[in-house]
Design goal:
The chain is built from six helices and five strands; from the N terminus they run βαβαβαβαβαα. Bound molecules: 4'-phosphopantetheine.
Length: about 160
């Protein structure tokens, strides 16, 4: 049987403990998970794509079933090239749902054979977002417990 491959796409600017929790859950559904970082976005990222790849590799590096890559263009094209049949997205609150539904349906229209799967992180991460983590770090707040220690250090270096 061929391996079941999932893509877990996002900006990951930076990776949070919520992302890591989703990744661990995705790993239970698929044989291999590719963390796929969107390279060019409208938003100006705090960390470059290479920095984000480096940070995520540093954290999940020991697990050979997880790959980290960047992509540009359509996610479904990247997923297709990678042999992935699953797109994993994390859902926190109802407010995430509308955008995620639109994206999942658009991706399904583009690639009917790729299934989007929504996973819920632990409740304690339900309010954690990269955007709020950056704001907290920028204003001198403590991000301990919200992001891996390695990311916490990188945030402290940046601000
Ligand atoms: O973590 P984010 O920023 O919410 O992730 C959004 C992401 C990267 C999953 C989404 O913007 C994306 O897939 N962009 C690539 C272009 C694409 O395929 N868009 C969806 C169909 S139009």
């Amino acid at each position: 049987m061929t391996d079941r491959i999932a893509v877990y796409p996002g900006s990951f600017d930076p990776l949070t403990n919520g992302h890591l929790d989703i990744l661990a859950r995705a790993r239970r559904l698929a044989d291999r998970v590719i963390v796929a970082i969107l390279e060019q976005d409208q938003k100006t990222p705090l960390f470059s794509a290479d920095e984000r790849i480096g940070m995520i590799r540093e954290i999940v590096g020991g697990d050979t079933s997880i790959a980290v890559a960047s992509f540009s263009g359509l996610l479904v094209d990247f997923a297709g090239r990678s042999g992935a049949t699953i797109i994993v997205r994390g859902l926190r609150a109802v407010s995430d749902y509308e955008y995620e539904l639109q994206m999942a349906l658009m991706n399904r229209r583009l690639a009917p054979d790729i299934e989007t799967v929504f996973l819920m992180a632990k409740e304690e991460y339900s309010y954690v977002s990269s955007r709020l983590v950056k704001e907290l770090a920028r204003l001198g707040g403590d991000v301990t417990g919200l992001v891996p220690n390695f990311v916490r250090q990188r945030l402290a270096d940046r601000f």
